[in-house]
Design goal:
Layout lengths: L1 E3 L19 E5 H6 L10 H7 L8 H33 L8 E7 L5 H13 L7 E5 L7 H7 L13 H12 L5 E7 L4 E10 L4 E5 L25 E6 L2 H15 L19 H24 L8 E5 L5 E7 L2
Helix pairs in contact: 3-4, 7-8
């Protein structure tokens, strides 16, 4: 099936006689799956176990029907970017190296965007045109906990103001400019903080994937009324992983409960105090955190950026992608 749909809650413009127009084409999963033709999936069950996040129901079928066509589409975009680069350098009479193709992956906490980013990294590495694919999450650009405490932002961690936005912009700008080596802070989900003295080094990848809550946020307006740069200004392609808020809430609670016997059980974990909670206590605690922090951030800051993506992957209640909204070109 092919029909058009708008991922944003805003009203659509109408032409009056033929209904509403939208910049997106909607494809259901079966139609999308056929776009990969007879290409064989490069991943196996061991890869699936390694790549999927806690609570994600990633399967070989999902890889074949959702991510294989997506990797093929991205491969085509990378090739087109290369052709445009060649045409531009010929026009200018210059010889310059291609810069990395940058992909942004956005979405709520617990929606599975990290799994999507990891799968894409593995899939794109298997294409001969893009053997060097790096993945950086925006967690590394959160202010350290001590700074968040100083600013009174510890309970707003993950909100736009909790990130060192200038450092993040400098990082992606340097990568996109073709710098030989660019460094990013390293974040630990165990200690829930920036790791002092440790960095992630990115050296001219073919593709850079940038994953995070707010990567599609629009540019801020400066004090003088002018708009600054947005992180998405450096993206060649962007993806938003979407689901109903009620689904994401339940996924967050389930993940929190599973972590009690996982990461939370480590004495070094920032959340070790939750390890011994009963099922009922864990659910109540998780819902409290969700309602106080994650849901307000989703509704106010993350969800409004959905319509800025070039591709929206919509999931159903079992974490399976069921439809795709692709921006028309």
């Amino acid at each position: 099936m092919h029909r058009v749909s708008e991922p944003s809650p805003r009203p659509l413009p109408s032409n009056g006689s033929e209904g509403n127009f939208t910049p997106f084409v909607e494809l259901d999963r079966s139609t999308w799956a056929r776009l990969a033709n007879e290409i064989k999936s490069p991943l196996n069950q061991e890869d699936i176990v390694r790549l999927r996040g806690i609570g994600d129901e990633l399967s070989l079928e999902e890889i074949r029907e959702v991510y294989l066509p997506l990797s093929r589409l991205l491969n085509l975009y990378v090739a087109a970017a290369g052709e445009l680069h060649s045409a531009t350098t010929t026009f200018l009479g210059e010889k310059t190296s291609r810069t990395p193709f940058v992909i942004g992956v956005a979405g709520s906490v617990a929606v599975g965007k990290s799994t999507t980013a990891r799968v894409l990294r593995e899939m794109l590495r298997r294409w001969p045109e893009t053997p060097n694919v790096e993945l950086v999450t925006t967690d590394g650009f959160l202010y350290p906990n001590a700074e968040l405490e100083r600013r009174g932002l510890m309970q707003r961690k993950g909100f736009p103001e909790s990130y060192d936005r200038r450092a993040l912009l400098r990082f992606v700008s340097a990568v996109k400019s073709g710098a030989e080596e660019v460094r990013a802070p390293k974040y630990s989900h165990l200690t829930y903080d920036i790791v002092p003295g440790e960095e992630i080094v990115v050296r001219r990848p073919d593709v850079l994937i940038v994953e995070g809550l707010n990567v599609l946020a629009p540019a801020r307006v400066r004090a003088d009324g002018r708009a600054g740069l947005a992180l998405s200004d450096f993206f060649d392609f962007s993806i938003y992983v979407d689901a109903r808020t009620s689904y994401i809430e339940e996924w967050y609670v389930r993940r929190f409960q599973k972590l009690r016997s996982g990461a939370f059980a480590d004495p070094a974990s920032y959340f070790h105090r939750y390890a011994d909670l009963s099922d009922e206590e864990a659910r109540e605690t998780a819902l409290g955190i969700w309602k106080r922090i994650n849901e307000p951030n989703l509704v106010t800051n993350v969800l409004p950026t959905r319509g800025r993506a070039q591709l929206v992957l919509s999931k159903d209640a079992n974490h399976s992608v069921t439809r795709m909204l692709l921006r028309k070109t």
